[in-house]
Write a structure and sequence with these properties.
Blueprint lengths: L1 H22 L3 H4 L6 E4 L2 E4 L46 H16 L14 H16 L4 H47 L4 E7 L6 E10 L4 E9 L6 H12 L3 E3 L1 H5 L14 E9 L6 E5 L2
Parallel strand pairs: 5-7
Antiparallel strand pairs: 1-2, 3-4, 3-6, 4-5, 7-8
Helix pairs in contact: 4-5
Length: about 300
């Protein structure tokens, strides 16, 4: 009688367990074994008929340590091994931690690392990142480090190229302004100008090359002009030197000064009685030219 009651009790426990599994959403596997099933860790086996596990391993069988037999338990060695999570057997906690870490790495190794700062790059730049990443990984860097370094390198190169392009464009605009301003300057002076003539301020030591100079030795007249495009301003050295020319204290020097007819090393006040210093602004959009005395 006692044994019968015990068996009835065991079956009641099995029924309750089966119902709980149905509620949890696992009815598809356990419905045919609603009586006489036992929960063992994460596996369920039938002790009445097949004595086999009927709950398959939910992990991808191609992952390391899982295997293609998704119904196996502890690699068929339950005496010496255990399978607490229903996915792979373990011997002790340390080994379990190692296996879990290995599986995590295996599952994430094939996922591409999303590089930072990737937005805004062209397809060619993205391809360059991939090529550089492969080369860096071959040199021993991790995937994440390689992607980050490759992305930073390509973006830095892109920034440098953009800056160089901007500088080239600014130089071209400045050159256009110089040509337009010099033509207007020569029309006012009635003579051909000498370009990029060097002057020095003896008081501060500052020096600058100015865009256009016309010197008439016979009339002792010196005209100097500096051209700027759009809203560009004079540099500090240009401001100091142009003020010194206006005062007559500036000293011309170099071959360009001699080409203009000036004596190199001699202050302009000793060579000219009439000195004109101007700044010409050229609006490269509209073509408007504005010349003003300086300072």
């Amino acid at each position: 009688m006692g044994s019968i009651s015990n068996r009835v009790f065991q079956r009641l426990i099995a029924v309750v367990l089966a119902i709980s599994m149905v509620v949890a959403g696992t009815a598809g596997v356990y419905a045919s074994a609603a009586f006489g099933v036992h929960q063992l860790a994460q596996k369920v086996r039938s002790d009445v008929q097949t004595v086999r596990f009927i709950s398959p391993d939910g992990w991808d069988p191609t992952l390391p340590g899982v295997g293609t037999n998704r119904y196996a338990y502890a690699q068929n060695d339950p005496i010496n091994r255990s399978d607490q999570n229903g996915h792979f057997f373990i011997v002790d906690d340390a080994i379990e931690a190692t296996i879990v870490l290995g599986l995590m790495l295996a599952m994430t190794a094939t996922k591409p690392v999303e590089p930072t700062g990737y937005a805004g790059l062209t397809e060619e730049q993205r391809q360059e990142i991939q090529d550089r990443t492969a080369a860096l990984v071959a040199q021993g860097l991790s995937q994440a480090e390689a992607v980050q370094r490759a992305t930073d390198d390509v973006r830095s190169t892109s920034i440098r190229s953009a800056r160089q392009q901007t500088m080239r464009e600014n130089r071209a605009i400045g050159r256009m302004a110089e040509i337009a301003a010099r033509q207007a300057f020569e029309d006012r002076a009635g003579a051909k100008a000498t370009t990029q003539v060097s002057f020095r301020d003896p008081e501060t030591g500052a020096w600058a090359k100015l865009d256009a100079v016309v010197y008439d030795q016979s009339t002792r007249t010196l005209s100097v002009d500096e051209a700027k495009a759009n809203k560009a301003k004079l540099s500090k050295s240009q401001e100091v030197v142009m003020a010194a020319i206006k005062d007559g204290t500036a000293v011309p020097f170099g071959k360009k000064a001699e080409e203009a007819g000036l004596e190199s090393g001699d202050p302009v006040k000793n060579q000219a009685d009439k000195i004109s210093v101007t700044k010409t602004t050229v609006d490269t959009g509209s073509g408007k030219i504005d010349t003003t005395p300086y300072p």
